[in-house]
Amino acid sequence: MANHTGKDGVVKVGSNTVAETRGWSLSEEAETIENTAMGDAARTFEVGLKTWSANVTAFWDETDTNGQVAMAAGSSVTLNLYPEGAGAGDTYYTGTALITSTEKSAELDGMVEISFDATGTGALSTATV
């Protein structure tokens, strides 16, 4: 049984590693389409279209032009999410994503952080390094 820790995660825009990443999340959904007919004893459904979305959080780094800056709201990017690192044989998720929003935050006693929300356009693929 394989287990992994979050510290090994990596986020890339294309082949460029996003600097100062703190975490990421990935959500996949499949819509359901009801196909129940009169006379059926119970409701039945078919799987419809699939969607995916992601969120990335990082310490803000305005000099990361190929990572954080490339994920400006409205941008289309190839987003690669690596849960176990980016070494040979590691699994990752990849797809084209539209960056739908970014949010920066700062606290008196904390670091300036940024988060990115992305919506997948097209299929999400699972690949191996």
Helix/strand order:
EEEEEEEE
What portion of residues is helical?
under 10%
Stretches where pLDDT falls below 50 for ≥5 residues? none
Number of helices: 0
Query: Shape, please?
Result: elongated
CA radius of gyration is: 18 Å
Calculate the terminal CA-CA distance, rounded to whole Å.
Answer: 20 Å
Q: What's the rounded overall pLDDT mean?
A: 96
Number of strands: 8
Supply the number of structural domains.
1
Biggest sheet details: 8 strands, antiparallel
Structural class: mainly beta
Query: β content, as a range?
Result: over 45%
What's the layout of helices and strands?
Elements: E1 10-13, E2 16-17, E3 21-34, E4 45-59, E5 76-82, E6 91-105, E7 113-120, E8 125-128
Antiparallel strand pairs: 1-2, 1-5, 3-4, 4-7, 5-6, 6-7, 6-8
Question: What does the model show?
Answer:
It is a single chain. By secondary structure, the protein is mostly beta strands. It has one domain (6-23, 55-128). The chain is 0% helix and 53% strand. It has no helices and 8 strands. Strands 1, 2, 3, 4, 5, 6, 7 and 8 form an 8-stranded antiparallel beta sheet that branches. A hairpin with an 8-residue loop joins strand 5 and strand 6. The model has no long low-confidence stretch (mean pLDDT 96).
